[in-house]
Amino acid sequence: MAGHRSYLCIKQQKIKMKKRYEEVAERLAGQIEQGVYLPGERIPGVRRLSKQFAVSISTIMQAHQLLEDQRLIEARPRSGYYVRTRLWQPPEQPTMTHPKPTPTAITGHQLAMQLSQATQQPGIMQLGAAIPDHSFLPTRAINQALMRVARHQQQRSASYEFPPGSIELRQQIARRMLDAGCQIAPSEVVITSGCQEALTLCLRVVAQPGDIIALESPTFYGQLQVVESLGLKALEIPTHPQEGISVDALKLAIEQWPVKACILVGNFNNPMGYCMPQNNKQALVKLLGKHNVPLIEDDVYGDLAFDHNRPLAAKSYDRNSNVLYCSSFSKTLSPGLRVGWIVPGKYQEQIAYQKYITSLATPTLAQLAIADFLQRGAYDRYLRQVRNQYARQVTLITQAISKYFPEGTKVTRPKGGFVVWVELPEKSDSLQIFHQALAKNICIAPGPIFSASGKYRNFIRISCAQPWDDRFEAAIIYLGKLALQ
Predict the structure, then answer these.
(1) What pLDDT band is residue 87 in, cutting at 50, 70 and 90?
(2) In this model, does residue 17 exceed pLDDT 60?
(3) Based on the number of CB atoms within 10 Å of its own CB, is 16 exposed (0-12), middle (13-18) or buried (19 or more)?
């Protein structure tokens, strides 16, 4: 009888162990389903999971085996376990755009101002403006850099840094631009108050009111507002969601119209998210150089590659100083510091003068603080972390859109940055959705704001640079309902 009881105890223990590893496997499967671990992403090691679930290592290994049998995870030699990449099929992407092939006067500043003002409203769910939430920024480290500079360089930080700007910052920028394939001297850099000012200064130098500016379609609405404010006309060029601006279409446009300059965001474009292939960039620079059309390159997202491989800038192919390269730290370090720069090529003297008469100088304290941050190597450590975060965010939001939006919705597949471009069913009206969502404290960017001619009525752009939580998911669910109406 005692032996029988002993046998029953052993059997019960085995059943209990089996239930425990099944429970662990179920919880891990739930985390994968919820997006805690994404397709292709490594899950924690056995020791960490053992501690996390308060179970033995053998129990975790059994759970792994069960998840492998269920084809949820896969083992990689000497690397660990990864979520299988075939779990989820992303939605289709939008196709090549077909804007009107004629120059257009821009009149959309009211909507752009409404969008920017909405970002300031208390309690708003910010999915509209491409501004990173503070949780994605190295705010504490930047504040420490500001305090160090203020403490050790009191007199200098209270003075002007007239154009071209702080030599320390220009040296750091010149070093960093080597990663983008650009060998430049610090003397070739002009510091600006963000990339928006950089774009404005460039257009002032290369164009006059009434001139035609070629740009991608869709394009960042901030570029359109600068073009509008300077009395210029926009010529929208067909653009592919993976390849970028059509070089062939641009060639035809230049042959047909007196194009004075071209603007583009070639690396992790806003709003489409693509990274223009290197051979396309080279062909673009060659084409524009042949016709003596300056290229204004906006590269604010170039450092945010999901695969950690920083793409080359179009500027790297410039042999005639015909590319005016613009960027800033607003999408990576701090929007509030308003620090950007231009490498203006042959337009150096004119750009420095325009900077001086426009705003005298960019705040010295901000310049010196960012130079300090870069010099200490903190920027690269931060980028390694935030690139992974943005990759996760884009995948989570794309999965949610696939789940909650109407059938037939298409979404771009960015390889860097933090925005997605969403094509809704043709009957959807993004302007109506914008106003209805704003009434519920949800802000999005409607498609027409990205077009000089008001195209993309059934498109929206969503910024993924907000923490994923229940409120974010609820906002996506509500937007999906609006798109169904």
Answers:
(1) low
(2) no
(3) exposed
338: three-class secondary structure by DSSP: coil
Helices (H) and strands (E) in the chain, counts: 16, 17
Q: What is the 3-state secondary structure (H, E, C) of 388-414?
A: HHHHHHHHHHHHHHHHHCCCCCEECCC
Structure tokens belonging to residue 157: 């930080």
- What is the pLDDT averaged over residues 345-369? 97
Burial 465-484 (b: 16+ CB within 10 A, else e): bbebeeebbebbebbbebbe
Residue 361 CB partners (closer than 8 Å, separation 6+): 160, 161, 162, 163, 165, 355
Query: Is the CB of residue 344 less than 8 Å from the CB of residue 351?
Result: yes
Q: What is the mean pLDDT of residues 236-264?
A: 97
List the domains of the chain with CATH numbers.
21-87 (1.10.10.10), 137-379 (3.40.640.10)
Mean pLDDT of 195-223: 97
Between β-strands 80-83 and 73-76, what pairing exists: parallel, antiparallel or unpaired? antiparallel
Asked if the model's pLDDT at residue 16 lies above 70, the reply is no
Is a pLDDT exceeding 70 seen at residue 3? no
Q: In whole angstroms, what is the distance from residue 136 CA to residue 19 CA?
A: 39
Token duo for residue 250: 């641009």
Closest Cα to residue 389, out of 92, 142, 38?
Answer: 38
DSSP for residue 86 = G
Mean model confidence pLDDT for the chain: 92
